[in-house]
Write a structure and sequence with these properties.
Strand order of the largest sheet: 3-11-5-9-8
Strand content: 25-35%
Oligomer: single chain
Distance between the termini: 9 Å
Number of strands: 13
Order of helices and strands: EEEEEHEEEHHHEEEEEH
Radius of gyration: 16 Å
Length: about 240
């Protein structure tokens, strides 16, 4: 698979940008503090990669067809399925509120993720005197509009899988502890729509980078920040 990254796109862009579309693959840039949604099919896989390090990615998912299926990725059901052993290890599955597997974790370089905290939301920032601050709940709701999501409150009904988020163990290492090139990869077990947000939380950290999503009919989806071309990605083992 050939991947072309547009390294000239600025991370200050306010909207996601498609930089490659073909029959086999699609490259999508998700600016820092914004979100994106994409469909995945059973039998495919997707990867979320943090190239620059310390970028938390909130991930939610709904089984298709949305919203009529009423089935979604559930952290409480997943914690139960894992007998409380969170976060999942490679080979473990994330499950839905129907108590059925939706994604299988097939690779994990960071090994640090959160399954307890909600997505940041407008009220969360308003309490901190930051009314109007972007939030993961709003980012994902905006991205889910084409599927019929009408309000960020629909997103807050689903607790996210907070990729690369180090809670509640912040006393041991940073909140965002992922290193450049860290990634997680999932095998898709149900047709689903996935919503992701490059978390805009900057109250205690100024880290805010953009992510790039690559996904193709073979099943590979990746979230990558700006500034790395395909050759460098291959050299670093990301691809």
């Amino acid at each position: 698979m050939t991947i072309i990254m547009n390294s000239t796109v600025s991370s200050t862009d306010s909207k996601p940008v498609d930089v490659l579309d073909s029959a086999d693959s699609k490259t999508h840039i998700v600016p820092g503090g914004h979100g994106h949604a994409f469909e995945v099919k059973k039998g495919s896989s997707f990867r979320i990669v943090d190239i620059h390090g310390q970028q938390i990615v909130d991930m939610m998912a709904w089984v298709l067809p949305y919203p009529s299926s009423l089935e979604h990725l559930s952290m409480s059901y997943t914690r139960y399925a894992l007998n409380g052993n969170a976060p999942p290890a490679v080979g473990d599955c994330l499950v839905t509120n129907k108590q059925e597997p939706i994604f299988k974790l097939t690779a994990d370089v960071c090994h640090t993720h959160d399954m307890t905290f909600m997505a940041c939301n407008p009220a969360f920032y308003a309490e901190k005197g930051l009314k109007g601050h972007r939030s993961c709940a709003e980012n994902i709701a905006e991205a889910m509009k084409p599927w019929g999501m009408r309000s960020y409150l629909e997103a807050t009904a689903v607790d996210p899988f907070n990729v690369f988020q180090n809670t509640p163990d912040m006393t041991l290492k940073d909140l965002g502890c992922s290193r450049p090139g860290d990634f997680v990869e999932f095998e898709v077990l149900k047709d689903a729509v996935v919503g992701v947000s490059s978390c805009p939380y900057d109250v205690v950290s100024e880290v805010l980078v953009s992510c790039l999503l690559l996904y193709d009919k073979r099943g590979l989806a990746q979230a990558l920040p700006f500034g790395l071309d395909a050759a460098n990605m291959r050299q670093t083992g990301v691809l």
